[in-house]
Predict the 3D structure of the following.
Amino acid sequence: MLRWPNKSWRNVVDARLLDILVCPLCKGPLEYDKKAQELTCRPDRLAYPIRDGIPIMWADQARKIEAV
Ligand SMILES: [Zn+2]
């Protein structure tokens, strides 16, 4: 059994998420938005939500980012 307290998991998310996850549409790198708890893909203008520390990597769950 691995000890995996929530606090550590959050740190792991911070450090590792971007190495592991790419955008399912364009396979490009994602940006982790700590405040919004989202992973954003700039080229696709999509933000993938993170729920309970688990990224939801489906395009139909993603939020469209307004053009800046
Ligand atoms: Zn993308």
Notes: Residues 23-68 form a domain with the N-terminal domain of TfIIb fold (CATH 2.20.25.10). The pocket of zinc ion is lined by residues 23, 25-26, 28, 41, 43-44 (CB under 6 Å). Strands lie at 31-33, 38-41, 46-51, 54-55, 63-64. The mean pLDDT is 81.
